[in-house]
Specification:
Layout (H helix, E strand, L loop, with lengths): L1 E6 L2 E13 L6 E14 L10 E3 L10 H19 L10
Antiparallel strand pairs: 1-2, 2-3, 3-4
């Protein structure tokens, strides 16, 4: 499942993909779930600002549902845009 969102002059493309991680010691799927694959584009450019980024929940666990993966990926992408591309407000010195 893939969704695109416009955010602060950027296009955020979020995909929820199945994650079937294999535990090294057991050689069987450890926990099935979803990961969010995030691509960030400038609105006027068709080339992504970064290579695709892959996100899961805290601790490296996959998301339980596709909806959780989409929302987690969207939140992460917004945070990246806010922190790296938008001007930060100046701190007021007392």
């Amino acid at each position: 499942m893939t969704r695109s969102y416009d955010y602060e002059g950027f296009t955020l493309e979020i995909s929820a993909e199945s994650d079937f991680s294999v535990a090294i010691s057991k050689r069987e799927p450890s926990r099935r779930g979803y990961v969010a694959v995030v691509r960030i584009f400038q609105a006027a450019n068709t080339v992504a600002v970064y290579s695709p980024l892959c996100f899961g929940e805290a601790g490296g666990r996959p998301f339980a549902t596709e909806a959780d993966a989409l929302m987690g990926g969207y939140s992460a992408a917004c945070k990246i845009v806010d922190d790296l591309f938008l001007p930060q407000p100046a701190l007021i010195q007392p």
